[in-house]
Design brief:
Low-confidence stretches: none
Radius of gyration: 14 Å
Order of helices and strands: EEEEEEEEEEE
Structural class: mainly beta
Number of helices: 0
Oligomer: single chain
Strand content: over 45%
Distance between the termini: 40 Å
């Protein structure tokens, strides 16, 4: 069984910062995670990619967050982070963590709300 636990969401004023964390745990033996990432879904919109990072540390960002958000991961802890700076009202959404295991496939977290007030 795989469980992704997100934390760090909340309410922040425009221009502020938040840091999201997502810890991934799989019962049984140790499994390797290939790609980890963050997606978001605003009300009435489709879920969209925010950022991904491979096990080797190669990161990919949506154009809308480049220069403001930074994704990182701790492979020893199977945890991925998203540092969000210079937040804007349009960043308001539910943020979802995703982990793609080498042998188990992909899994989603339960989501954490980020609200940016203007």
């Amino acid at each position: 069984q795989v469980q992704l636990v997100e934390s760090g969401g909340g309410l922040v004023q425009a221009g502020g910062s938040l840091r999201l964390s997502c810890a991934c745990a799989a019962s049984g033996r140790v499994f390797s995670i290939n790609t980890m990432g963050w997606y978001r879904q605003a009300p009435g919109k489709q879920r969209e990619l925010v950022a991904t990072i491979t096990s080797g540390g190669s990161a990919n960002y949506a154009d809308s967050v480049k220069g403001r958000f930074t994704i990182s991961r701790d492979n020893a802890k199977n945890t991925v982070y998203l540092q969000m700076n210079s937040l804007r009202a349009e960043d308001t959404a539910v943020y979802y963590c995703r982990a793609v295991y080498n042998t188990l496939g992909g899994y989603w977290g339960q989501g954490t709300q980020v609200t940016v007030s203007s």
